[in-house]
Design a protein that fits this description.
It contains ten helices and 18 strands. The strands form five sheets. The protein has a six-stranded mixed sheet with strand order 4-3-2-1-5-6. Strands 13-14-17-18 form a four-stranded antiparallel sheet, with helices on one face. It is an alpha+beta fold.
Length: 377
Amino acid sequence: MTDYQKRLETLQADMEERKLDLVVLGASPDFQYLTGINVNWRSGRDLNYPADSVFVPIEGEPVVMVGMGNTGKVKDSWISDSRPLGFFEDMRPTVKEIMGGFDANKIGIGEYTYGSLVLAVAANSEAKFQSAEGILDKQRMIKDSTEITKLRNVAKLTEEVMGQVINELDEGISMHELTSKIRNLGRLRGATDVSFPTTGGFCKSGSEPVGVFNYEPDQPLEPSTAIAFDIGFVMDGYCSDWGRSFYLGEPDEHIEKAYPALMTAVVETIDEMGGEVQRTDQIFDHIEIVCDREGYGGRLRERLPQRMVGHQIGVEVHEDPWLRPDQKQELVDGMVFCIEPKLWHKGEYYLRVEDMILIKNGKAESLTTYDRELFQL
């Protein structure tokens, strides 16, 4: 069971370090993480409500406010003081009432918070304001057992969907048809959303090197084509992010050897986490060493010149810290991140592998385990 009280206490300790008396979080990943309420922060602005927010004091319990459409969701939260608003009800009187219960000299404002809400808070306070952006990032980096279970489940759903897609993949399908099918199958299996735009990209070998993918969206799939998937779903409030590549037809030798080289680099790097690989900035380095050994380091660097090879994942698909040279975070138990190296040979192939990795007992466990040997379809 999620320990929301511990999350609150950790946040309040961070507030004390920042000398913040009050933090206001609009409908956002942080709001979801702290309150347990799944409001619709992932979608368009017109589907959200400016009133959706949580007020967190430096001491004591938070107050949650929700607008129309989300009033029934407050029952899902552990927070006892909730202020649901009626249909198109003006939030300003409720904000005034909430602010009357706080004595705040400095207020932090989180991401996703509407300007109208900030103005309503400011109208009832003479406090100084500052950004509270990222205030929960460090805490959210370490997943508890409930979060890990949710991430396992959405990873499993993703691989089940992709197993069906790959088994049914036929010549003649277009990228547009393929991505639509993936999204629909995810919904049918229980996903509430995609965590980012679905990619099923085609690169015809021996073609003009115009970009990563060289098919039009509705152009039928032909043999001698590399197919790269980058897929993510949302289920129970948590995200997946998965990638594999395949080849339709008979690949030339340099293509046939490229994908096993990339997969070997991923597997060997996962095996070394907790050993040679101790920090986030060392992950690319180890992948590069193996790709160089296998003869494909140049293709890796061509696609990833900034040496960024992944990110943390949780309620958001992209969370801090990222796996890049300037992020020297030690790998610790409870981290879940995505490793996503790519090889790119213009006009020949674009290949990617992406796995969700859990750090557990000082070692790495892959939450995604789809067939690592399958390449040629």
